[in-house]
Design a protein that fits this description.
alpha+beta, 23 strands, five-stranded antiparallel sheet, 504 residues, single chain
Length: 504
């Protein structure tokens, strides 16, 4: 008797039954292309995210199971003469419920398959004559002779030279194939990440089982439980390895930039030369050839219209001072990135040695701060940039702004937004005690202005503060927040470029 019918994900249905005090569960997984089902005596239903389906099945007594001949489908027949059709048609697989003597289903599991709403289950019953006369009349056309042949049997025939063979040889190969398909031995094979069940000899066979129920259960476990673990582990490894590669590239480029800055002459030297030759520019002279007493070379100095040599020298002194700050910032960033690279290398090593789902789950829990790395980049609620070693995130929509602020942002991160207009939230990820330079802040602010209604303005106000001073008000519209202790910076809106890049 059916005691429960429920789903814990949009791609899976669980039927629970009881017979003389014994429990039985049928678990049907319909996430294309992974169409699998299993039979088990134990199943732990989740306390949350579980929904009851097909309520009219509860209390129904199972009368019989019928496999539809020459079709990838089977029926569960009840004493009431109601039917449950399990249709295993690849990415068109579905579960359909038919009340007694009704031609159209009353309910289906995958409602997006519109054609199933009018499917007469009797149309799936087929009668095929697999005799020699029919085969020869079809000139050995395998698809017409046996339309339900799957990919694996077709590949087997092809490998045996079926396409170029004579009709007599084709008949012999078809007979050999059908004999193997009638064999009670089931093989589970794995090629790369694909796990499948076959009745044919297979180079990639990993397990052979005589009992069909055991084979289905073994396939379900290997393909979904173990397979999903391996896929998730592989994705995580790639994400961390990619992050390590990006970090290594940053270290190399920044180290080269630092080396160039340190070796090149500071702008203050040119300023000194100009200040020592102020007399040359008397009388409105705008261009002069001067002796560079640092290098003993002759250099040409050009002033802009109405520019005084003292003003140019002052600019060069400021630039030289800023260069020292840039050098210091680069040194700090490189140091931080090297520490990050060591941490990533350790994480990759630990991840490579994980062999069970439980350990993988604990790993993700322990590395919650890496959510932006672990999650599929296309599904993240923000675009990712890097400005002078700092990660900068830009929300993709009002709803995404909320998710970024709520689930990814640390309280010490810097939050920015174009002032008094709609636009993306922007986050500068703060790394420990590293000071965020004015250049980084202004470039991030330029992004905030670019991704807002102020995009076309020549100069735009952008507010910024630490993320801990930004809060969501209950009931407020998506993206709306209250901000305390804000400051304002005026910037020219500027979108992504090669300097900061974009990852999603």
């Amino acid at each position: 008797m059916i005691t429960a019918c429920f789903s814990q994900s949009k791609d899976e249905l669980i039927l629970a039954a009881e017979n003389e005090g014994r429990e039985l569960y049928i678990r049907l997984h319909f996430l294309p292309p992974q169409i699998f089902y299993s039979f088990t005596n134990k199943f732990q239903r989740a306390k949350r995210n579980s929904i009851d389906l097909f309520p009219f099945l509860i209390g129904q007594k199972i009368k019989n199971f019928e496999v539809l001949a020459f079709e990838r489908a089977f029926l569960i027949q009840f004493d009431s003469e109601d039917l449950l059709l399990i249709k295993l048609h690849g990415n068109r697989s579905n579960i359909l419920y038919y009340p007694k003597e009704e031609l159209n289903p009353r309910a289906i599991f995958r409602n997006e398959l519109k054609e199933d709403k009018t499917l007469d289950w009797k149309s799936l019953r087929k009668e095929l004559s697999l005799n020699k006369e029919i085969f020869f009349s079809l000139e050995g056309n395998a698809s017409q002779f046996l339309p339900t042949l799957g990919k694996i049997p077709r590949e087997w025939l092809k490998d045996k030279g079926y396409i170029e063979a004579s009709v007599d040889e084709k008949w012999r190969l078809m007979q050999e194939l059908m004999d193997m398909l009638d064999s009670p031995l089931f093989s589970i094979a794995q090629k790369d990440t694909e796990v499948y069940l076959t009745l044919l000899p297979d180079t990639y066979n990993i397990q052979s089982i005589a009992d069909p129920i055991e084979a289905l259960n073994a396939l379900f476990y290997k393909a979904l439980v173990v397979g999903n673990f391996e896929n998730e582990k592989r994705k995580l490894l790639k994400a961390y390895e990619d992050q390590a590669k990006k970090t290594q590239n940053y270290i190399q480029k920044s180290s080269q930039k630092l080396d160039d800055l340190v070796k090149s002459a500071p702008p203050s030297q040119l300023a000194d030369v100009i200040m020592a030759h102020l007399h040359v520019f008397e009388g409105g002279v705008q261009s002069a050839e001067l002796e560079n007493f640092y290098t003993n070379e002759r250099i040409i100095v050009n002033l802009k219209p109405n520019q005084k040599p003292q003003d140019l020298a002052a600019q060069l002194y400021r630039k030289s001072k800023n260069r020292q700050l840039e050098i210091q910032q680069l040194e700090n960033n490189i140091k931080a990135k090297k520490e990050l690279l060591e941490e990533l290398d350790t994480i990759v090593f630990d991840l490579q040695n994980i062999s069970e789902f439980r350990d993988l789950k604990n790993f993700k829990k322990h590395h919650k701060k890496d959510k932006s790395i672990q999650k599929d980049q296309s599904s993240l609620p923000f675009r990712q940039f890097e400005i002078e070693g700092f990660a900068v995130w830009v929300g993709k929509s009002a709803k995404d702004n909320d998710e970024m602020l709520r689930n990814f942002t640390h309280k010490d991160d810097i939050w920015l937004h174009a002032r008094q207009v709609t636009g993306s939230h922007v986050i500068i990820r703060k790394k420990g005690n590293l000071k965020i330079s004015d250049r980084v802040l202004e470039r991030a602010a330029a992004l905030a202005a670019f991704y807002s209604k102020l995009k076309t303005e020549s100069l735009a106000p952008v507010i910024f503060t630490e993320a801990k001073y930004v809060r969501k008000v209950k009931g407020a519209a998506p993206g709306s927040v209250m901000v305390d202790r804000e400051s304002v910076v005026m910037v020219t809106p500027q979108g992504p470029d090669q300097e900061i890049g974009i990852s999603s």
